[in-house]
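Slide 14.
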Amino acid sequence: MSERCRHGAVSPWLSGIASTQRRRLHLLRLAFRGNVPKLWVMPAVATGPMIRREIGDDHVCLLVFDRPESGANIFDAATLDELNEHLDSVESDASLSGLIIASAKKSIFVAGADLKTLLQQAQTGDMRAFIAHGQQVLNRLAQLKIPTVAAIHGASAGGGYEVTLACDYRVASDDPATRIGLPETTLGLIPAWGGCTRLPRLIGVEKAAEVIAKGKLYSAQEARSVGLVDWIVSRDELLELARKKLRDGKRKAEDRASAKPPSQEIRRAKQHGNAAPQRALEIVNKTLAISPDESLRMELDAIVDLGKSEPTQNLIRNFFLAEKYKKGTSKTATEKVVHAAVIGAGVMGSGIAQWLSSRGVTVILRDIAREQIDRGLANIEKTYADAVKRGLMTEEKATAGRARIVASTAPMELRDVQFIIEAASEKFEVKKEIFRELGMQAGPKTIVATNTSALPVGRLADTTVSPEHVIGLHFFNPVSRMKLVEVVIAKQTSNETRERSLAFARQIGKLPVIVRDSPGFLVNRVLFPYLLDAAGLFESGVDAVRIDNALVQWGMPMGPLRLIDEIGVDITIDIGNTLEKAYGRRDHVSSVLLWLRDGRMLGRKAGAGFYKYEGKMQTPNESLVQWRGALHGDPEGAEGPNIPPGWHRDPRVRLNEEELANRLIFLMVNEAARCVEENVVDSPEDADYGMILGTGFAPFRGGPLRFAEHFGLKKVVDELERLAQTEEKFLPCEILKKHARDGTRFYEK
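Slide 15: predicted structure.
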């Protein structure tokens, strides 16, 4: 061989290229575990090659991506330059018969561009040059006169898949680590290194539109069926198959009759506030009617425009925040939790037990009522069955998870349990009695946690013999889908209990946010003024659908009245009453909620609340509208809901959709600012990301406080003060007024 081992060795499956000198480079890049984004931190100073070249006796050139001292490969400027230099050599060597691109990493092929660099470039205006350089390099790869094959093993996402699109053929390993796709639109970007241009030419417009707009990562088998790869084999056979495919020569341009436009569902892919899916679809729909060069120019213009936008920058920031909360800052190793107990087998208790068991923790599930145990076990069975049906786990793993749960109505030995999580009724006296008993039953190192959503953790700690071992772990419903856990620190909670609890939350795949022990903690405290004011708006005469649509259009995943129905009217009232005792009228429960509760219209679980529910159908609750009419008196009275809005004395009825949304969102902004002001959370990021995770607060807006800064803090304060002239609950808090007065911010620029 002419250049064998020229740059060193790769892993054994890549046929013995020698090892290379190492270099340090600390960068952040996006990869995926399953369909879950993961951030890799990589060394920061480059001193050796990131791509190694081998030319065999068969005159096939093998380019192996193998970033030194890192488990992953990325595309940064240095890697692009190095690939460009290798292409110089390939173009100048007339003896070469083909080119294979591969990776030496265990679970990563090549990932996309370094996200932190992209975010900085977007803010400084340097993105265009970097993206254009990537396009130029991949164009050279696509235009090689020799056949090219990408041998994909591991995650091939974003730019890491676009480099394969510049090859003639794509072969992939059938390993579970192999995940393939273009997830850029989920971060407010588009595939701009040829993804929107080459993929439609490969698989047709309709399929390409779906792949790009949804941003999903596919298993090797799924990728093969969609057409993202040509063949799949075992990892051991990957290079052999790649060499074989080179013998087919350059890929011939095929007659693609699949230029039909994407379906209505895909055409509606634009998410509120995230313009990326729609920008990508505009290119995908045009690309077959224009030249590839023109299509690439559209890609470049689109990604540069998107990169400048607040929604895209917020979505990328959110990604970094997820990694921050996933990793934490503790340097102290903690014992892995293998045995836990959950007290209470209701919706939350059974959900927590199922989640723990699915994460390898054996669980004692206790409840005093046999019927509750039976319902809880049925809920657990349904969650496992759904996970298998959706392909989130195998039947074998589900069976193993079920087997880790022991349910009982009788007392069981708890001294060897590492964590006990109380998830009983949200009544203080009930929880107080449970904690008194648990304090005596728990072992000397057992942490006793409560899943309360609003009750004082410190008062529960006072009922135990070891209050330093008591903490709040507030999971969110449904536990199997909601990532957030509020870790509630009472005054009595020890540092050890805090660190062990944070480590436990991360061990089971949750994202913990630390909050101080105060009524409502973070999420419910910020959320409930919004929910309760929405109920008050309905009572005043504003249509339920109009309220909810205004907030959905603003970017919330569902409207506030629909959310009350999902939470449960009875639970909403209980939490509202708890919060009103602490915070006054901004958490006042309006009469409409009491009327719904008295009529047993408790929301979706009862089939009726602000809406009526039949299966997946949702319709207005006409009996509620009739009640409101009676409340306001005869329809001919000045306040009757059937009177034209302009005739109403209550100005709330005359609010347009933007005014409705601002009124409700500003309540959340004000309360989130209070949480920072009162040190309920440690930082504005905690408030913002906690609300995104816990409520689905429009991710592209970055959270309540980041949204307020973008909107203008002075404008927010001015509007709150205007509203406070008639409703005292809108009075802006001191930290908001100070920032507005001084021209300062929650976040550094």
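Speaker note: Residues 1-47, 634-641 have pLDDT under 50 and may be disordered.
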